[in-house]
Amino acid sequence: MDKPSWRMRRRIIVATLIFCAGEVIYLTGWGDDTDLASTIANGVLILAGSVIGSYVFGAVWDDRNVMAMRRRRRPDVPYPTEPEE
Questions:
Q1: What is the residue range of 67's domain?
Q2: Domain tally for the chain?
Q3: Is residue 66 part of a domain?
Q4: Which of 4, 27, 45, 57 has the most C-beta neighbours closer than 10 Å?
Q5: Residue 46's pLDDT band (boundaries 50, 70, 90)?
Q6: Could you tell me which of 74, 71, 24 has the C-alpha nearest to residue 44?
Q7: Taking the model in full, what pTM does it have?
Q8: Nearest 5°: phi and psi at 9?
């Protein structure tokens, strides 16, 4: 059974994390100390944490589903028993 490719998902995740890092770097280095900048920084950090958490949860969920499908496809093999005398 082939697993679906995570290539596109990874690209979106990496792009989002790079955007978040860029925003934090910009606000830290060149941003003004305002309530708006603080709110944006908090939002960006929450977004990064949510993306990482969702990625890990999604990978675990996907692996669990794949393993369940493999178990369902496996034929039942009887266990060998000892001959009775």
A1: 8-73
A2: 1
A3: yes
A4: 27
A5: very high
A6: 24
A7: 0.70
A8: -60, -45
Place of tokens 């990064």: 48
pLDDT reading at 4 higher than 80 = no
Q: What is the residue whose two structure tokens read 């990496």?
A: 14
Calculate mean pLDDT across residues 24-53: 95
- DSSP, residue by residue, 4-73: PP-HHHHHHHHHHHHHHHHHHHHHHHT--S-HHHHHHHHHHHHHHHHHHHHHHHHHHHHHHHHHHHHHHH
* Euclidean distance between CA atoms 68 and 28, whole angstroms: 46
Q: What distance lies between CA 20 and its chain's CA centroid?
A: 16
Output the six-digit token pair for 34: 């305002």
pLDDT at position 9 is 84
Res. 44 pLDDT band, cuts 50 70 90 = very high
Provide mean pLDDT across the span 32-37. Answer: 94
